[in-house]
Amino acid sequence: MQGLAIREVPGGWDNQMWRLGEELVVRMPRTERAPDLQRKECRWLPVLAPRLPLPVPTPVRIGEPSARFPRTWSIMTWVPGEPLDYTLISRDDHATDTLADFLRALHVEAPAEAPTSSDRGAHPKKCMDGFEYFLQAIAPDGIAVDVRAVRAVWDDAVAAP
Questions:
Q1: Which residue, of 64, 65, 121, 133, is most buried by count of CB atoms within 10 Å of its CB?
Q2: pLDDT tens for residues 44-79?
Q3: Which parts of the sequence belong to the Aminoglycoside phosphotransferase domain (predicted)?
Q4: pTM for this predicted structure
């Protein structure tokens, strides 16, 4: 991996990301919870990847905490594309079908040894507090979003069993 160009990738929630050459990304945790999430990703993404109709990052290397950086970090394969918070969502039939196929493949019973998470996979009824905040985040000034339509989809999700 020596000699590969490195450049910062804007965005990221729990991790600061750096492109390493054209094929890889270095993920350096910003939050306390990120190292544990990275360990789970490195364990489970290779299990999920063959089942999914779209590419997902796969682990290449796990870096251990040291005096230079106090948290676990990772190098993953780079999946090209634009982060959703930096681009408009496509509404064509192909995008809809692709997303539906991905969610259908993902939404199957997990293996018995798969980890559980208290902050992911909750029913929308348990996520009401953040809805208004995130609704405003997808509809900033100057971008046309049908807020009533988004709210209607959310209300349907909350009402679902």
A1: 65
A2: 999 999 999 999 999 999 999 999 999 999 999 999
A3: 6-120
A4: 0.70
